[in-house]
């Protein structure tokens, strides 16, 4: 592993603050640069892991091997999944970002800053209520958070009020942090957050608390993107960490913007399946930000597609079809890549390649886990030879009514026959229609539907909209489907039990 100085000097990064020998923070660029952006997404997640992060890192190193200046732009790991079901989130095999343990645990403290800012807001809200409640706060809608899976905090009673904790990655502060264009925009978005409602049902904004300067003081240092290195010795900007099943699931806008000023290509990853992070990346980030999205890479594996078909590839392949067709609705340049495992048969690989080709997209096998960047050279060459062909389309217009936006997502992306909701939720839809924001769907990541048990060729089901909320600071309407939770719990055998510390060496599960 090289000293981080050699990495940021190689790219000529400006305004750099080192965090030890292998991590640093870099200044935020004022505007987007000329780099082409490659979005990496995947088919529906399974227990095997599809390898989006590993492929994104390997693809980045492959572009560098070809003589292109490339930066991979990733989200920061949340300690909830690190200690829970997933384990580390820094890639794998010969395609990783380094130093792994530091990135997975604490990193440069960004998540702690976001958690602290969030909970300071909650503390001041309750303090206002305690001291005469001059703001007439009758209903509190802003929740506390922590960066840990803890199901006991899903529902708590505070000062006689029913409340809940979110995991930090699902908090509105995380969304604001990752969507803000600069410090000025961060300030405005913080001020716009709705913290609750008064006795006349008027919204109360965070600006009324008079603490925005303090929040900026907490977040200012964290707002600068982090730079680390890939196992191939190239730059990686790692910043922000919203979950894609309950938030928009993309690394920070400022890290993407900054990366485009220092590279020819920026490889970025969106969380979970293409119905989650990739849809939100295109629908939310590209609307108001001018950068060149060259193509979308859809990662899949033989194992994952078999899992989607209950062990039968010919059934699970419909999951690939649905994701390809969804992505082609949104952008015209889609490439499928199969993340190869040692036990994959030629027959299975050829079947997937032929099927993808019949859908009208190229399909290329990669071996990044075993070979790093050298295992993704064919994929990189295909991208470079076709990186001027992409056109972006949107599923709905921002001025569309809110019910129509939700219904278009349900029918076109989830392949459902329609949606249902309670009378109270429909009233919320009508009430929030004045906010002409993109929707941000919160649903299970394990199916195109809102039921994680529905696999294979998911279609003609009905989606149940259980709640809806406005994140006025993030400028998003959050739509909750099914039994989705914003505070995960630990599994029966969480990854934290597999962490070992021996002779000064910490080992995390992969």
Explain this structure to me?
The protein has 510 residues and is α/β, with parallel strands linked by helices. Helices cover 33% and strands 22% of the residues. It has 17 helices and 25 strands. The strands form 6 sheets. Strands 1, 2, 3, 4, 5, 6, 14, 15, 16, 17, 18 and 19 form a 12-stranded mixed beta sheet that branches. Strands 20-22-23-21 form a 4-stranded mixed beta sheet. Strands 7-12-13 form a 3-stranded antiparallel beta sheet, with no helix packed on it. α5 packs across α6 (172-179), α5 runs antiparallel to α8 (212-219) and α12 packs parallel to α13 (346-358). The longest helix has 21 residues, at 110-130. The two termini are 19 Å apart.
Question: What is the CA-based Rg, rounded?
Answer: 22 Å
Mass-distribution shape: globular
* N/C terminus separation: 19 Å
Counting DSSP H or I runs of 4 or more residues, the number of helices is 17
Structural class by SSE content: alpha/beta
Helix content: 25-40%
Largest sheet: 12 strands, mixed
Oligomer: single chain
Strand proportion, as a percent range, falls in 15-25%
Secondary structure: number of strands: 25
Stretches where pLDDT falls below 50 for ≥5 residues?
Answer: none
Return the average pLDDT rounded to an integer.
95
């Amino acid at each position: 592993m090289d000293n981080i100085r050699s990495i940021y000097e190689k790219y000529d990064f400006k305004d750099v603050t080192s965090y030890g020998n292998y991590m640093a923070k870099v200044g935020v660029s004022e505007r987007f640069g000329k780099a082409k952006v490659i979005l990496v997404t995947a088919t529906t997640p399974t227990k095997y892991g599809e390898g989006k992060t590993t492929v994104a890192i390997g693809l980045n190193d492959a572009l560098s091997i070809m003589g292109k200046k490339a930066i991979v732009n990733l989200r920061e790991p949340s300690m909830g999944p690190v200690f829970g079901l997933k384990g580390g989130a820094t890639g794998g095999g010969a395609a990783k970002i380094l130093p792994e343990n530091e990135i997975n645990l604490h990193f440069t403290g960004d998540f702690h800053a976001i958690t602290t800012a969030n909970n300071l807001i909650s503390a001041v809200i309750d303090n206002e209520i305690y001291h005469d409640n001059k703001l007439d706060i009758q209903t509190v809608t802003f929740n506390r958070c922590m960066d840990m899976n803890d199901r006991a905090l899903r529902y708590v009673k505070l000062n006689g009020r029913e409340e809940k904790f979110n995991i930090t990655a699902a908090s509105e502060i995380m969304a604001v942090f990752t969507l803000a264009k600069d410090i000025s925009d961060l300030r405005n978005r913080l001020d716009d957050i709705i913290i609750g409602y008064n006795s006349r049902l008027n919204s109360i904004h965070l600006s009324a608390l008079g603490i925005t300067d303090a929040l900026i003081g907490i977040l200012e240092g964290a707002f600068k993107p982090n730079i680390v290195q890939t196992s191939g010795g190239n730059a990686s900007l790692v910043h922000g960490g919203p979950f894609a099943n309950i938030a928009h699931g993309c690394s920070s806008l400022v890290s993407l913007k900054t990366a485009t000023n220092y590279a020819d290509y920026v490889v970025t990853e969106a969380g979970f399946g293409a119905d989650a992070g990739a849809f939100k990346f295109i629908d939310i980030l590209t609307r108001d930000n001018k950068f060149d999205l060259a193509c979308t890479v859809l990662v899949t594996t033989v194992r994952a597609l078999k899992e989607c078909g209950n062990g039968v590839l010919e059934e699970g392949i419909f999951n690939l079809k649905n994701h390809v067709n969804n992505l082609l609705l949104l952008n015209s340049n889609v490439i499928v890549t199969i993340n190869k495992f040692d036990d994959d048969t030629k027959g299975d690989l050829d079947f997937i390649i032929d099927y993808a080709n019949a859908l009208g997209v190229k399909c290329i096998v990669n071996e990044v886990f075993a070979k790093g960047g050298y295992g993704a050279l064919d994929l990189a060459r295909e991208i470079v030879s076709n990186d001027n062909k992409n056109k972006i389309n949107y599923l709905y217009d921002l001025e569309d009514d809110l019910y129509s936006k939700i219904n278009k997502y349900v029918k076109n992306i989830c392949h459902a026959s329609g949606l249902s909701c309670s009378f109270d939720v429909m009233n919320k839809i009508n009430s929030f229609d004045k906010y002409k924001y993109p929707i941000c769907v919160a649903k299970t990541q394990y199916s195109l539907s809102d039921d994680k048990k529905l696999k294979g060729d998911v279609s003609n089901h009905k989606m149940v909209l259980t709640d809806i909320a406005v994140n006025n600071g993030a400028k998003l309407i959050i739509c909750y489907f099914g039994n989705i939770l914003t505070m995960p719990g630990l599994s029966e055998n969480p990854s934290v039990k597999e962490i070992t510390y021996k002779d000064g060496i910490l080992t995390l599960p992969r």
